[in-house]
């Protein structure tokens, strides 16, 4: 985070205080993308997806995206036909300010569900933002999209490809997946590399699968989640075939930026006091490995035990047993807490002492590793603990 | 609960303090069943099912069950081959004391996972229990099987069939599904009606589907869950065909006893302050109705909102949207809190005020009704809220 965020030639940003809520802070972010860039995105799977998500999905199908508009404080979700009209009005406002078509603008909103967007405040803010666009705006942007986040989330990488320096920068918001009424997770990643559209479409899917789809704070998915990947093409050769070493390096760096942002969301999970990696090895398939990992990572019983620094292995095997793995031979299952073996052959490991396990669980950051001994597939996810503070935040929010 | 529990001729009970843990209370329950009774049971689906569950499943396949032995304080789960031997030793102890075969005994354990059963203490307790068996033991029995339950759970019905009085009595333990390390839910229901084995096998499945499979405290399933239904046949005609009016009445009463016990578990859910029915109407299938109901009933965000008496409809539609209902037309979804409409056509209902919703959520007992307008199938579940006390209980347990 201390690392200064590089500029991405071809991308300019500006944030303004539009007073979408009664607060004193930037809450409207405009991102301008130069002509010729490729833009890809993934969106929430929730059936109640928000109006801006519906509009953004429609616009991105048309291609040639030239701007993103993001507001915090209001999700424009469950707002019916008026919500759609409001999102379109915002796109028209950006189009007028930047001289592009409304269909070249992607709208995003995050905040309270079920209240209508204060469209006029946004329309008033857009021209101000359009006049202050600058390439150095990533840090300010990361703060403008925050809701209950306790800190901004940014990540970046630079690498040399064919003698040219390529940069990747990303910002995200989300204090866990746990605030669907704060409708919840947004991430924007940009690189100045030139990546053709079909390859970028594939890359954003892969990067999200390795990052945001592997985190859980409480298993809920919001109505507004979105992740956007921009390749401005301002620097670097066109990476056309997706095969070469250069593309491999670029892809790895882009995935790393996504992972760093995803982990930052878990670390900032509401009430979270621990960051826990759940690693499942030797599964028969990726699907069953992820099921076991999420069953552990989402069990309130396991998460309260993490909070209490209580290496409660009964709860761990309960969660493994509930993952619906066909014909699981429980007698072959091992579990490790960092490098301490706690479960061996489905029972308490020989020589394991409570003190060893407690020492691991007392750390702010540790790994639970499950070995299913059924195949050779490994998967991992990241999760956090479940604290008193979580209940307080979610019981008191909005009241 | 104030209702005195009737005797079930053909079933005698005794509880003794075997000191399975370092406590002063009955913790070992023996239930003797007269020859000729039918006994059926359902067991946990958790892959890590406990040693007594494995033995009980094996024994019940042989039929002609004559006794149940239940201990609290130790689950005999994740205890490997020695756990199986320990459970068998307990069955042999009961067989010797009652003059039956070990295979005619079903063992059950509830308590901490992963510690070996104190078999000698149990073997010492069995003869004492065998000498004090009596038909009036149901109230005492309901207390002996408690772990962190704050109160015993009992239910009974009597009805007249063909001029004879038939009784049904049931006991259960479980402070929520939320304590798999206290391995968790046990229920025993007995009637003096005569019900043939195949019909009883069907009946216990149906009764559990209507009761214990419709409750959630946190969505976790324990290693030791079991529900046993006994038809002693001491009273009443043999109800042979399952078709007549008499069987219909009996079945309804037996299901009612199961439902009353299941609801008692939710009401005693750890830290629970509210009892909430989630009703889903006009679904296309039973499966999708239950998915929507459980998505609401298990969402930590919805449950913390219940705790806070906050009618947070954004969280409700988020949960509905996450239930994976194919092609859900969100614009047709309605939600009611008791008789207050909060969501209409997928958005905030016209005329709804926050005060109306809050008034419903402030009650200790209310219903959330979702209308999907997709078909004509309705389902319901029962759940509770998620409080600070839940985190405290589960974070501090065992420490």
Describe the 3D structure:
The structure is a homodimer of 399-residue chains. Chain A has 399 residues and is an alpha+beta fold. Chain A folds into two domains: 257 residues, L-amino peptidase D-ALA esterase/amidase; 122 residues, Ubiquitin-like (UB roll) (Roll), CATH 3.10.20. Chain A is 34% helix and 26% strand. In chain A, strands 9-16-11-15-12-13-14 form a seven-stranded mixed sheet, sandwiched between helices. In chain A, strand 4, helix 2 and strand 5 form a beta-alpha-beta unit. In chain A, helix 7 packs across helix 9. Chain A is globular and about 70 Å long. Chain A starts with 10 loop residues before the first strand and ends with a helix. Chains A and B meet through helix 8, helix 9, strand 14 and helix 11 of A and helix 8, helix 9, strand 14 and helix 11 of B. Chains A, B: Pathway: Amino-acid biosynthesis; L-arginine biosynthesis; N(2)-acetyl-L-ornithine from L-glutamate: step 1/4; Amino-acid biosynthesis; L-arginine biosynthesis; L-ornithine and N-acetyl-L-glutamate from L-glutamate and N(2)-acetyl-L-ornithine (cyclic): step 1/1. Chains A, B: It is found in: Cytoplasm. Chains A, B: InterPro entries: Arg_biosynth_ArgJ, ArgJ-like_dom_sf, ArgJ_beta_C. Chains A, B: It holds the Pfam family ArgJ. Chains A, B: Keywords: Acyltransferase, Amino-acid biosynthesis, Arginine biosynthesis, Autocatalytic cleavage, Cytoplasm, Multifunctional enzyme, Transferase.
């Amino acid at each position: 985070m201390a690392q200064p965020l590089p500029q991405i030639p071809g991308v300019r940003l500006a944030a303004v205080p539009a007073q979408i809520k009664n607060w004193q802070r930037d809450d409207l972010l405009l991102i301008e993308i130069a002509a010729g860039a490729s833009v890809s995105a993934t969106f929430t799977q929730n059936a109640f997806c928000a109006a801006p998500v519906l509009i953004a999905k429609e616009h991105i199908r048309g291609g040639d995206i030239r701007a993103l508009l993001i507001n915090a404080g209001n999700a424009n979700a469950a707002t019916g036909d008026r919500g759609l009209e409001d999102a379109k009005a915002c796109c028209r406002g950006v189009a007028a300010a930047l001289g592009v078509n409304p269909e070249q603008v992607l709208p995003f909103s995050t905040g309270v569900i079920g209240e209508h967007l204060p469209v006029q405040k946004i329309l008033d803010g857009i021209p101000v933002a359009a006049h202050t666009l600058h390439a150095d705006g990533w840090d300010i942007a990361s703060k403008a999209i925050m809701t209950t986040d306790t800190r901004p989330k940014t990540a970046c990488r630079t690498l040399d490809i064919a003698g040219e320096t390529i940069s990747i920068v990303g910002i995200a918001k989300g204090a866990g997946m746990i605030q669907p009424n704060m409708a919840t997770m947004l991430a924007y990643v940009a690189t100045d590399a030139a990546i053709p559209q079909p390859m970028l479409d594939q890359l954003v899917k892969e990067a999200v699968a390795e990052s945001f789809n592997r985190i859980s704070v409480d298993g809920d998915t919001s109505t507004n989640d979105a992740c956007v990947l921009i390749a401005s093409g301002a620097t670097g050769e066109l990476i056309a075939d997706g095969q070469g070493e250069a593309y491999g390096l670029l892809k790895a760096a882009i995935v790393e930026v996504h992972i760093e942002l995803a982990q930052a969301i878990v670390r900032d999970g509401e009430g979270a006091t621990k960051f826990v990696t759940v690693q499942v090895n030797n599964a028969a398939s990726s699907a069953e490995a992820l099921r076991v990992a999420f069953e552990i990572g989402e069990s309130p019983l396991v998460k309260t035990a993490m909070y209490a620094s209580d290496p409660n292995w009964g709860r761990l095997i309960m969660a493994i047993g509930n993952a619906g793995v066909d014909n699981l031979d429980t007698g072959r299952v091992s579990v490790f807490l960092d490098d301490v073996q706690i479960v061996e052959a489905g029972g308490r490991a020989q020589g394991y002492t409570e003190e060893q396990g407690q020492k691991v669980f007392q750390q702010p950051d540790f790994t639970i590793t499950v070995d299913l001994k059924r195949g050779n597939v490994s998967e991992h996810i990241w999760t956090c603990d479940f604290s008193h503070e979580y209940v307080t935040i979610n019981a008191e929010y909005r009241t």
